[in-house]
Design goal:
By secondary structure, this protein is mainly alpha-helical. The chain contains 10 helices and no strands.
């Protein structure tokens, strides 16, 4: 691969440059190499993937990253090495794609577009906490049951689906919004309203947010 200065990279990647094809290939190879290292050495969640799988992922991500780099080349200000700047774009592409892949099988299929159906979910089943001391176990279980009842009784089906997906299952906001056919702002409001409903219901039953924090901190 040809070693280039920042100025040469920018110039060679311009549409009218006679060096564009070679520069694009050089950049793609660099990005793919960097991504393969990232996937194979810095992602502990990918240790079960074969070398062929990682290589294919790196190849796919590098193609997307290359397109994003070319689309945004006008924003490069030369404050770092061009290849470092492009590598950061590639890393963001990989992180985004891996996050999307992680949740691709998460099912909100039981939730209709109007939020009509969603199976009742149990907080006691979904929440994983360290084993409490015997004297506090019953108290924690009672509070869990109150939270569980509140989720299933005071929230709308759509609020319940969004809150459980985000707060308990940890699904990213963007993915929940996409699955529910809404946007980030509307989803934030939906979850915010759900939290307020839960807070009021629990406080009416004598449980404060401070009580919850005290009960469920690690023993």
């Amino acid at each position: 691969m040809v070693e280039r200065s920042n100025e040469q990279w920018v110039a060679d990647l311009q549409p009218e440059s006679p060096e564009r094809a070679a520069a694009i290939e050089d950049l793609r190879v660099r990005l793919e190499r960097g991504l393969l290292y990232y996937l194979g050495h810095e992602r502990s969640d990918l240790t079960d993937y074969s070398s062929d799988d990682l290589r294919q992922m790196a190849e796919d991500f590098s193609q997307d990253a290359l397109l994003k780099t070319l689309d945004n080349i006008g924003s490069f200000r030369g404050e770092s090495q061009f290849t470092t700047w492009a590598a950061k774009i590639a890393a963001r592409v990989a992180i985004s794609e891996l996050r999307r892949s992680r949740w691709k099988d998460y099912s909100l299929d039981d939730l209709s577009a109007d939020g009509e159906t969603m199976p009742a979910a149990s907080v006691a089943d979904l929440t994983s906490t360290p084993q409490p001391q015997p004297e506090s176990y019953t108290e924690r279980q009672d509070v869990l049951n109150l939270v569980d009842d509140a989720i299933n009784e005071v929230l709308t089906e759509r609020q319940r689906a969004a809150l459980i997906a985000h707060a308990i299952d940890g699904v990213p906001i963007e993915e929940i919004a996409r699955r529910m056919g809404t946007n980030r702002n509307a989803l934030y409001k939906l979850i915010h309203d759900a939290r307020l409903k839960l807070k009021k219901r629990l406080e009416d039953q004598g449980v404060t947010m401070s009580d919850l924090a005290d009960l469920f901190e690690t023993a």
